[in-house]
Structure formats: C-alpha cells, structure tokens
Amino acid sequence: MTDLRQFFASAEDVIVVPGRLLLDDGPQRGMAVLLRGGRFGQIGDPAALRSTHPQARVIELPDHLMMPGFIDTHTHMTQSLGKSLVFGEPSEIFRRIWVPLEGSLDEHMVYLSSKLAALECLRGGFTTAVDAGTRSAGHIGKLVDAAREVGLRLVVAQICNDQGGTAQMPEHDEIIRRAEAHLEACQDDPLIHGSLAISIPEVASDAMLRQISAMAAEAGVTFQTHVNEHLVAVERSLVANGRRPLEHLAHIGALGPQTLIAHSTLVTPSELNLLRDTGTAVAYNPVASVWKGNAIAPAMQMRALGIRFGLGTDGTRADGFRLMDAAETLQRAGYGLACGDSSCGGGWLWVDAATRMAADASGLARVTGRITEGLAADFLLVDLNRPEFTPSHDLTWELVRYGNRDQIDAVFTNGRLRLLHGWPVDWDAHALMSEIRELAAPALAAAPIQRIHPTADSLIAARPA
After folding, report:
1. Which end of the chain is more exposed for a tag (fewer CB within 10 A), N or C?
2. What is the pTM (predicted TM-score) of this model?
3. In this structure, how many other beta carbons lie within 10 angstroms of the beta carbon of residue 177?
4. For 431-449, what is each residue's pLDDT tens digit?
5. 148-204 pLDDT, tens per residue?
6. CA neighbours within 13 Å on the CB side: how many for 388?
7. CATH T-level topology, domain 70-361
8. What start-end ranges are recorded for coiled-coil regions in this protein (predicted)?
C-alpha cells in the first residue's frame, strides 16, 4: 500500500482515486474525491478532477473501497474497563454493574476508559460515536479530552437526572447550569458535539424530562434516553404512571426530532406510531439485544413506517461490519424467517443504517455520514484484495456479511489519518493498554459491583465430564 502517513501528512489538496467509492447510490467505479480542508471538496471523474485541480496530490488505490466511516448511535465510553463483566448476566446490568463502576471512577480512570473505547471505535471503523454520558462524578471533560486526542468524532451527553442513577445528584438549578455549560463548551469544536441526556425516564421528574428535551430542541442538539429496553422497566412505568415509558414521554411532551431513544425493543404498534408522528429517532442495538436484552427492535417495521433509526453498539463490541451483520441477522431471525422475507433490507439498508441514517438519527446529517461535497472527510479505506471479496458479485451485501474490521487499512476523521492497519499513527496505544492493565483491577475491586454469575473461567473445572 502507498505510504499513507507520508501522503496525508501535509495540508495540501489531495485527490483520492479508489477502486470503488461508496456513494448514496452504492459502490461506484471510476470516481475520485478531492479532499480539501478536512472536507470532501469535490467528487467526480478522476481525469476531470486532475484537470480542475492540477496542484492537488493524487493517490491511486485501485484495490480499495473508500466509504463513509461508521456511526455508532449509542455507546458508553466510560464502561470499557469492565466490558466483559456483563457476559451471561441477566438484564438491567446498569443497576448492578455500570452505575457502581462508573460512579467509582476518578478523573484519570475516566480518561483511560474513554481513550480505550475511542481507540476501539476507530479500530472498528466507527469515525463517530454517540455517548450517552458518564455517570462518574463530573468528569465529562476527561471523556471529551480522550476522544479529541484519539480523533474520534463524538456526540457526548451531559446527564441531567434529578432522581437518581448517577454518582452525584445536584439541585435543579445546578443541573441546568451544567447542561448549559456543557453545550457551550462544545460549540464550534471540530470533533465534539454536545448533547443532553436522562439515563432512563424513571430517574428524572416529569418536569426535568420536559425541560431537558426542550433545551436540546432549542439548542439544536440531541436529547438521549434509554426507553422500553427491559420488561421490568416497562412494568415499573405502568405501576408508577399508568403508561409505558415511551407513552409517558409522549404524554409529557419529551419526544420530538431532537430525541434519540436507545433500544425501543419492547414497542407496541401504537408506540411505533408515536415515534413516527413525533419524528423521534431510535438507536437500534442488535448486539445488545443478543447479549443482555429482552427483545429485538422491529427495525424493518420502523423503516417501513418512516421512523428514523441508526445502528448502535451499546458499548458491546466495536466492529461496524459485525454490527451490520448482527442488525440484518436479528431482523431475519426475529421477523424474516416467520414471514418468508429472505432479504430483510437487501443489504443496502444496513450499510445506510450504519452511515447516513445513523448520522441523521444522531443529529449530524449536515456534518458526516456520507461521501458528498461539503461534509467532513470521515472515511475508511477498506482492502478489497481479500479472499472474502473475491470474486465480488454484490459488494454491498458482501460488506454486510463478509466485512470485518481487520479489512480496514486506514481510518480518517476531518480528512486526517488517525489509524493505519488498526493502530494510531501519532500516539502510543500499547502504552495506554499497559497502563490500563496495571490500574483496571484495583479500580474494579473498589467499585461496589454485584454480579449474579461467576466468570466462565472459574467454572471450567466444574464443567460436566
């Protein structure tokens, strides 16, 4: 491969001529892209671009696909230090594992956890992630620092709970002050985008839910919350409010185009109509459904109804290709097999849901998610000279079912090379991992985590003969 480090080191205009270019109408041959000032400057015929921009450097990559970076519409970056602790655990692990863990992290551990998560995102082809906010004691600045250093585009939420679920519980006026300060701090940042969140509806008063959603709408940012994920939470809402969580948010006026609902796996037909009619977006988290959920979000039905959604990991595993595969697989297993739908989106739906649809759901449609003129140059170079893509008959389907993060040769955000062959080009990831190996165990031991099951390793000796 051409030495991309050297080629993209300068701030000069660059014309990239890939073997295939993933545009809105699918993977195209014979197209080139001008990169200028961290954005996609122009797209067209390679010869025409060379003629129009004779001063630009030209890089030809005939064996590569140039595609938009994946967008993770829902993750938790300050949970990366304990990610495998939840394997095999029953639902609502946030109560027994995540809240205790995140609440016990000091500033440095928040920074380390976030930097590790950001690295994993980029390695998996995610150039953007939407973080639901840290429950640690006011250390969101360290989360932002980590993402910025790694080069990950981040939508990051300030949690605004006023009835529990975080390490600190400020008074109402202080919650609002912190929310306003967070949004102001993120203004005009090239990589960091502010957001507001309530962890789950039951940890905030109706007045706070309504106010934070309205604040987000007025500021033009996303309002995030976890809704209709677990059966027990739906039942608690029915007891407390006489309405299911999503119904209750609609009742108090907290839904709308600014709202991004994580999960929505347990939704009734009337709730689907609420999502559609209010323009509310959904993070479809298929791997989370398999690992720790109660149900599968009806993504195919959401698409048919015109409900906005994008794919999210929920902090499970950071591999954009495997996420698309899981998204299609769960729809086929959960719905397609029963009704004879053998395509479940035709492949293209899941590529869209991981890129441009995810950008729209995340409030970033005018920033990223597509290779089109004027948007940020957030993209991947995928090596097509692999057995998985040989021979290639339908590249879009092949990306969904054969793609893997080890096929990603390079990751860019804002036109800047961030990772080459899975590793950062301008900082030492191995030093980060070494420090985390040293500090993670004591940090986890200090957290009041409650696991229901022992680890798999500890059960090996007791397994049946």
Report:
1. C
2. 0.96
3. 12
4. 999 999 999 999 888 888 8
5. 999 999 999 999 999 977 767 789 999 999 999 999 999 999 999 999 999 999 999
6. 18
7. TIM Barrel (3.20.20)
8. none
